[in-house]
Amino acid sequence: MLLLFLWPIFSFKNISADLEKWILTKQCTLKVNGSTNINKFSCIIPEYTQPDTLVFYKRNKNELMKITGSMALEVQKFDCRNAMMTSDLRKTLKAKVYPKIIIRFLNLSGYPDPSMKERAISGAVTIELAGIVKRFEVDYKYTMNGDGALQLIGTKQVNFSDFNIEPPRKLGGMIKTNNELNVEFMLHIKILNELK
User: Fold this and answer.
1) Which residue range forms the structural domain that includes residue 98?
2) Residue 87: CATH number of its domain
3) Domain total for the chain?
4) Does 14 map to a domain?
5) pLDDT of residue 146
6) What is the per-residue pLDDT for 103?
7) Residues forming a β-bridge with 140
């Protein structure tokens, strides 16, 4: 009878030990690299002003490891280092109607191993942009910085058309922005050993 009473307590502790909090810090950034028929451009959201928490599930060692949580970035924070280009990008991404880009993290192919300073892994996310949500497989590289600090860099090529967005044009269509964008998000994470 006592064993039946204590079993849920031990089970909860085991489950709790398999969970980690990953704190996204202000050093997180989002960069998009694109091109037109005459030049290339790079635009960045240089910091993450509202740090969030991800929950990482370590239980499935040989399967995709589940993550819950998201980060919401302000489209108005994009800086292309060119006032006209910055304004065009914000307008193209419909910043006034859809002010946030939301990245929801779904899984990772492996747990960042503290004994390996750098490694490539993959994982799935959804990206919500201009009112459209799309799922993508992302390639990551990670670096363990010690003291429970992790840098996770995800890269993915997406298209304006994935989100029903028409690439911007200028000068009566003489300058055309290509459909493809290379997205890079750099996550700076503080790992807490156990969910509490």
Assistant:
1) 20-192
2) 2.40.128.110
3) 1
4) no
5) 67
6) 94
7) 121, 154
What are the angstrom distances between the C-alpha of 137 and each of 126, 141, 155?
Answer: 9, 14, 9
Cα distances from 97 to residues 79, 126, 130, 169, in angstroms, run 19, 20, 8, 20
Q: Say if 11 falls within a structural domain.
A: no
Structure tokens at 129: 């942009």
Per-residue pLDDT reduced to its tens digit, 13-46: 444 557 888 899 888 999 999 998 888 999 999 9
Q: For residue 106, how many C-alpha atoms fall within 13 Å in the half-sphere facing its CB?
A: 12
- Between CA 134 and CA 159 the distance in angstroms is 11
pLDDT in tens, 87-106: 989 999 999 999 999 999 99
Q: Residue 152 falls within a domain, yes or no?
A: yes
Instruction: Please check whether residue 151 lies inside any domain of the structure.
Output: yes
pLDDT, residue 143, reads: 85
Question: How does DSSP assign the chain, residue by residue?
Answer: -HHHHHHHHHHHHHHHHTEEEEEE-TT-EEEEEEEBSS-EEEEEE---SS--EEEEE---TTSPEEEE-EEEEEGGG-B-SSHHHHHHHHHHTTTTT--EEEEEEEEESS---TT-SEEEEEEEEEEEETTEEEEEEEEEEEEEEETTEEEEEEEEEEEGGGGT-PPPEETTTTEEB-SEEEEEEEEEEEEESS--
Name which of 96, 145, 154 is nearest 121 in CA terms. 154
CA–CA separation, 187 vs 123, rounded Å?
14
